[in-house]
Write a structure and sequence with these properties.
- With 511 residues, the chain is of the alpha/beta class.
- Helix 17 crosses helix 18, helix 17 crosses helix 19 and helix 19 packs across helix 21.
- The radius of gyration is 21 Å and the shape is globular.
- Helices cover 47% and strands 15% of the residues.
- The chain has a six-stranded mixed beta sheet with strand order 3-4-14-9-10-13. The chain has a five-stranded parallel beta sheet with strand order 8-5-6-7-15, with helices on both faces. The protein has a two-stranded antiparallel sheet with strand order 1-2.
- It has a domain of 47 residues.
Length: 511
């Protein structure tokens, strides 16, 4: 099957996988979707015997049909190597009657590493295949984790530059320090005065600005994206859901063909959409449980078919999910609309102009397997604490949202289907919030000292919290944390939303 990619917003001719990866966003502002979802070509029992690398090849190959076997295997081998601190790459831990799929063993201790470790290699290969001579400029908006993972993935990759925009005061101090200390002559991180949705909207606007595109092209550059809107991010994420199922098979926890539930904490909808693609490929899935924090726009969407971003933007202890515009949902809406690009474009225009759109009951049937749920800060912290007290296992605040939503779902429905929970970040990345759940008095005392004695001492307090977390969890702090303890600050730019295009030009040395 020769799979191509078409836009969700027009009937323009479809493009190859390599061209879709290079462009990131379609010229009409739409997202690329495959012309078909391929079925898994081997039985799950056979796939269960494969390593992560070999399984990645089997799952990704049909989606990337214009890549040769040598090209794709080379990209996979470069991505999933010693950067990951666990040989399983994505180990599965059973705790408290659920299975936690640990997606945080890469270089930046968040699930974004799973796709952003391979995207640079897919992109460089795509550039060669398309005889692209312009230098690729990756523009990315981040709510916390994508930025660092993308910078780490693209650092010093020939023929690329990467510029990351993140909301000032809208990410954790550890997340910000990870970005500000990132090495690489081709990397830049910029704090913006605004929230993630502001940054993401401005980045999309730059992609669709023909004058800006022509200006950078005159200097030998072209834009592309490392956000999950890029199909080169989405396809690698499908792999780990198939891998989780295969691990359950190997353990004898399920029989081949037995269905599982998958619970995913999500803001931009890419991670759970990958699970949906895995289901469409033939992975036996009963329910896809979409877990949101108090920014519950997706929960309301799945409950009533209305997407409405007209609500307060809340800052929570799970900042990577503090999102009101879930970009990847457009791909699901396109499917629900019967792959009608005009109808999908109309919905997205309504979202832009009115802040909302509504699907018909018939359209909602296209994603009946999705269950939406949300958890408050209190529910999140209570679930993290209960899991720790009962099992000694510590999860971060994003995984905590998924944990709380799943536990409530199981209690309310009585559903005993084996359930995989996507564990999307190391607890060390959000140590102050995690300790606020499992050791609140000790954490409060440490943070109070840091706040009293100034910013520098505040950063030292963060590392004191990490030391406490290591002691309580009985685990060693990840290398990613050890590195930023002493790494120098390399990125200090701050700008307003309106100044983002000029900031890009300045970074590229274009007057």
């Amino acid at each position: 099957m020769n799979i191509l990619y078409r836009s969700t917003r027009s009937d323009a001719a479809p493009v190859t996988a390599s061209r879709a990866i290079l462009q990131g966003l379609a010229p009409d502002g739409g997202l690329y979707v495959p012309t078909a979802i391929p079925a898994l070509e081997k039985p799950l029992g056979e796939l269960a015997g494969l390593s992560y690398r070999d399984l990645a090849y089997e799952v990704m190959r049909p989606f990337l049909s214009d890549f040769t076997e040598e090209e794709l295997r080379d990209c996979i081998c470069r991505a999933y190597d010693e950067k990951f601190d666990d040989p399983a790459i994505a180990p599965l831990e059973e705790r408290g009657g659920a299975y936690y799929l640990e997606l945080f063993h890469g270089a930046t201790i968040a699930f974004k590493d799973m796709a952003l470790s391979i995207l640079p290699h897919l992109m460089v290969t795509s550039a060669k295949k398309n005889r692209e001579e312009q230098e690729i400029v990756i523009l990315t908006a981040t709510s916390g984790d994508t930025g660092k993972a993308a910078m780490a993935g693209f650092a010093d990759v020939p023929g690329t530059r990467i510029i990351v925009f993140y909301p000032k005061d809208g990410v954790s101090r550890i997340q910000e320090r990870q970005m500000r200390t990132q090495r690489g002559a081709n990397t830049a991180a910029v704090a913006i005065r605004g929230n993630f949705d502001d940054a993401q909207t401005a980045v999309k606007r730059m992609f669709s600005d023909p004058a800006l595109g022509e200006r950078i092209a005159a200097h030998g550059f072209r834009f592309s994206s490392a956000n999950s809107i890029n199909i080169g991010r989405l396809v690698p994420q499908i792999v780990y859901y198939v891998y989780a199922y295969c691990q359950l098979l190997r353990r004898g926890a399920i029989a081949e063909g037995e269905k599982i539930n998958i619970t995913v904490p999500t803001g931009n909808f890419g991670n759970i959409l990958a699970a949906d693609y895995a289901k469409q490929m033939g992975l036996p899935v009963h329910r896809l449980i979409c877990a949101s924090n108090e920014n519950r726009v997706l929960t309301d969407f799945f409950a009533g078919g209305v997407y409405d971003k007209n609500r307060p933007f809340l800052l929570t202890s799970s900042p990577s999910m503090d999102i009101l515009v879930s970009s990847n949902l457009e791909r699901l809406v396109y499917r629900a609309a019967g792959e009608d690009a005009e109808k999908t474009r109309s919905f997205m225009e309504q979202l832009s102009s009115e802040g909302r759109y509504e699907l018909s009951p018939e359209m909602r049937q296209a994603f009946a397997e999705f269950i939406g749920g949300c958890a408050t800060e209190a529910e999140n912290f209570a679930g993290i604490r209960e899991l720790y007290e009962n099992t000694g296992y510590v999860i971060d605040t994003h995984t905590g949202i998924a944990n709380a939503v799943y536990r409530r779902y199981a209690k309310e429905t009585g559903d005993t289907t084996p359930t995989v929970i996507a564990s999307t970040a190391s607890p060390y990345k959000f140590a102050n919030a995690v300790l606020g759940a499992i050791a609140p008095k000790e954490a409060e005392a440490i943070l109070a000292g840091g706040a009293r004695d100034g910013e520098k001492t505040g950063e030292l307090a963060d590392f004191t919290l990490i030391d406490l977390l290591s002691k309580l969890s009985g685990t060693k702090e990840p290398a990613a944390i050890t590195d930023i303890r002493t790494a120098p600050i390399r990125h200090s730019r701050v700008c307003d939303i309106a100044d983002m295009p000029e900031t890009v030009l300045e970074i590229l040395g274009i007057n």
